[in-house]
Amino acid sequence: MAKQDNGAGYDRIIEKIFRDHYTDGTTEFQFIRREIVQTRDQVAPELVDLNPGDVPYAYRYRRPLPSYILKTQPIGLEWVIEGAGRSKYKFKLVRFQRIRPRPDLVQIAIPDATPELIRAYALDDEQALLAIVRYNRLIDTFLGLTTYSLQNHLRTTVKGIGQIEIDELYIGLDKRGCHYIIPVQAKGGKDQIGIVQTTQDIRFVEQKFPGLRARAVAAQFMDGSVIALFELALVDDEIRVVEERHYRLVPARDLDRIAIRAYRDE
């Protein structure tokens, strides 16, 4: 029996919901979880075991929206799906922006501290990236803090957004004793850093840890065992890159001693 194509069913569901709400000039609208189930019954009855929440989740993080929806986007804007509370979601037009690694940045060589057993079984995905960042203490190096992983794949809720998942959450400490809360999102080589996850990460730490300084970080695999790290901020509901660094993990014997000294002047 051929494997069921959930993606095609998801496309029919989300497009039908969009058509039901959208008119020319619409810039945002809400829909509820019950609509997903009702629409499934109409256009994708084969998805008998559908988890309704997985449909908006797929388009927030994994899948492009159907072509009909993309064609309604004005130049320079794009549709995103945000959480809007418990069992509520929102289509919203936002400025098109993608955070991609700059090709002109120097690659900083770091001695690879990843255990060989982890290297042997790690895949090119978010879980592997989080593990490699953790073993090599790249958050410490990047932010200039002493940090500790508090929890990964944290599923929680945020007021006004609903249920979210944070890839990994760190607690940090600087030399003056100031405490930091650091949400980290991880992206594989083909995934892109977007506004939805950055916004929800920052809103979560603002609500749950109001006494700590927040610094949001994104990590992304690049070619050649290079990891790009970004510190991100929200300014007027748009993502801004505070700092970007690229780290190349190499065996200690391959470190360039001259380059190590030169990093002080970067």
Explain what this protein looks like in three dimensions.
With 266 residues, this protein is an alpha/beta fold. The chain has two domains: 6-95; 107-265. Helices cover 31% and strands 34% of the residues. Strands 4, 5, 6, 7, 8, 9, 10 and 11 form an eight-stranded mixed β-sheet that branches. Strands 1-3-2 form a three-stranded antiparallel β-sheet. Helix 1 crosses helix 2 (33-43). It is globular.
Shape: globular
Gyration radius, to the nearest Å? 21 Å
Distance between the termini: 58 Å
Q: Describe the sheet with the most strands.
A: 8 strands, mixed
Q: Which regions are unreliable across 5 or more consecutive residues at pLDDT < 50?
A: none
Number of helices: 9
Count the beta strands: 11
Please estimate the helix content: 25-40%
Q: Name the average pLDDT.
A: 87
As for the number of domains, it is 2
Along the chain, the helix and strand elements come as HEHHHEEEHHHEEEHEEEEH
Secondary structural class: alpha/beta
How much β-strand is present in the residues?
25-35%
List keywords for this structure.
8-stranded mixed beta sheet; 266 residues; globular; 2 domains; single chain; 9 helices
